[in-house]
Amino acid sequence: MRELGVASDVEVESETLRYSVDSPAQALAYKTGHLRIVELSLSDRFSMKRFHEAALGSGPLPLAVLGRQIELFIREELRREPT
């Protein structure tokens, strides 16, 4: 957070304490979701706006459902590409 962000030392310490002591499961869930979303984006050939709409448009979803939704999005995007 110090290297990549603009958070103050107090904010960094507060977030570090919150994630390491208060709610490590929440931090794990956030990171797991982030990694899965990055994994599912797969290609810079797709519109990030359309990807965000596909990934976030239905609200919170279990990762398995999100995965199927993004796989469908990818198939549809591949059909859109000129041959």
Descriptive overview:
The chain has 83 residues and is an all-alpha fold. The protein has helices spanning 9-22, 24-41, 48-56, 63-80. Helix 2 packs parallel to helix 4. The chain starts with 8 loop residues before the first helix and ends with a helix. The longest helix has 18 residues, at 24-41. Helix content is 71%, strand content 0%.
Please write out the topology.
Elements: H1 9-22, H2 24-41, H3 48-56, H4 63-80
Counted beta strands: 0
| Shape field | elongated
Q: What pattern of helices and strands is seen along the backbone?
A: HHHH
Mean pLDDT, as a whole number? 79
Q: In which range does the helix fraction lie?
A: over 70%
Total of DSSP H or I helical runs spanning 4+ residues: 4
Count of domain modules: 1
Q: Biggest sheet, in brief?
A: none
Summarize the structure.
The protein is mainly α and 83 residues long. 71% of the residues lie in helices and 0% in strands.
